[in-house]
Design brief:
The complex is a heterodimer of chains A (301) and B (330). Chain A contains 11 helices and 7 strands. Chain A is an alpha/beta fold and 301 residues long. Chain B folds into 2 domains: 173 residues, Rossmann fold (3-Layer(aba) Sandwich); 128 residues, Rossmann fold (3-Layer(aba) Sandwich). In chain B, helix 5 runs parallel beside helix 7. Chain B is globular and about 60 Å long. The chains are: A alpha/beta (301), B alpha/beta (330). At the A-B interface, helix 5 and helix 6 of A face helix 5 and helix 7 of B.
Amino acid sequence: MPEDMTLERGRPVTDTELHRRADWIRLQAVDLIAQAGLGHYSSTFSCAEIVATLYYHTLRLRPGEPRWADRDRFLLGKGHVATGLWPVLADLGYYPHDLLKQFGHVGSPLNDHPNMKVAPGIDFSSGSLGHNLSVAAGMALAGRLSGRDYRTFVLTGDGELQEGQVWEAAMAASHYKLGNLVAIVDANGFSGSGPTSAAMNIEPLADRFTAFGWRAVEIDGHDTGVVRRTFDELPEPSSGQPTVVIARTRKGHGVDFMEKQPQAWHLGLLNPEQYADVVAEITARMELAGTPAAPGPEGNA
Amino acid sequence: MSEQPAPPTERKMVDVFSDIDRDTALKANPSGYAVTEIAAADDRVITLTADLSNTLAEFREAFPGRYIELGIAETNSVSLAAGLASCGYVPYIFSMSPFGVLKTAEQLRTDVDYNHLPVRLVGRLSGLAMGYFGTSHYAVEDIAIARTFANTTVIAPADSNAVLGLMRSTASLDGPVYIRIAEAADPVYAEVPEIAYGTWPRLRTGDDITLAAHGMGVGLAVQAADVLRAEHGISADVYDGAFLKPFDSSAIISSASRTGKVLTIEDHTVNGGIGAIVAETLARHKIAADLAQVALPDVDLEVGVPAELYEHYGLTVAGVVAKAVELAKG
């Protein structure tokens, strides 16, 4: 890809294509996890449609120049789902597809959580929950100070919102009227050890963000048409109120047995039989959608 | 009958909660003075505070659009500064050391240090400077923590001139810097010193004992060296440990090799500060030397106005002299 080729905002894509892309992300993540021997399945699956829509429709990007100053920023606050991001960045040309084969090995720039120092296309490192909304607010403020019109998106988990720092950041974002900041909550209802609100209630989320001065939108995070339109209808970056998109999702979405036991598949490894079932279920759905599955790294489970 | 307390003027605490008159700014508020000067030459520089805006009165007046108040929210301040730095800015966070460093240690490590970002944390009121407020307000473990961060430069200026010199010389570093400000330290440098990166200025030359200190301890060390020479016939080799990371191992090694005795002075716990730096360095290089520390003990600390606390813990010229004599003659 030429260094200065820009992927503009609002690239044409159909809702079906985005659904297929989300399933492709799931397949790719399954393979990366198989390669590493352990990984986060169900929380990667809950945000697959969101990641697909951002990268294949919404974000203004320049894969040939990852540090381009005017790019839209994307921060993976819930860094444990990076297996869903690595194939996307390879596909868009940030690095060769072959790099995925190093995933999970010492020296690979692609880790289980993203590291901006080594992985092209990562706008900020993550892994410690609760930090990235603050970082994103800093990036949005930088956009204001430098007069650039980029947006900064941050994808958080719902359990992550239990971190107090998130609310410090929420307060600062509305105080500084950061209309160029968009938080997306992958509200899949579960944390690592159980239902999020059983551990510590975070609802009513929309009311809480609204009380902190945010514009809050609540959507079905698996309906690519809705996700796409929600992003299309974001206020201008120059506007004065940050937006939170509370995406109601299902942890493990896209694989029947994971959706029934989302907690069991927060972190784990499919055995060969389960791997085959998962690939068959997702592939069948993709084929039903009309086009063959996109090629990925060789499955090696 | 108990002794009368000292008159209030002598017991007064350092007041950093007031606006500073420009004429006295360099002496009373050197970090605010320095950042204003640095910002004038580098438009990437912005300042942030978590409720310490008074230190930046001059900066705010000069560069109103480059100052960001973040309220009493230190962790958010550090991560947000990291976001600004990742977009090309050089943020100086002004905070009180106990909250700016200890509360945010993980944000400093994960967001700033691991990502090699040029965030500067200016920690005012370090050590026991807020003694009277209670132990919650002490920053006596900060060096031990900050110097374990792989990419962070840690500096502890000895006096106002050193604050300006060290802030100037670290302004263009690509990585993070923790600047530990000692309040009301005795003057050491008559002019603004130019201290090369990672080096320890040698302030007195001697053969009998090495004194190594940082921050407010440097003024004590220099004055103690003069007393040691005049009254005890002991010649001290005195170093300003301005850089705690990276530190000047060759200064430590060459001086300790000659004197065989090293006394470290610091308003920091005995663990992990300059005392530990010296001990680790000498042990690693197989240099035998007698060591002693004037530092804060590894126990619950007392509360009181700083002057009384310094007295209590021997962080005085007399305290340093006594310990040095003991070590030199031991």
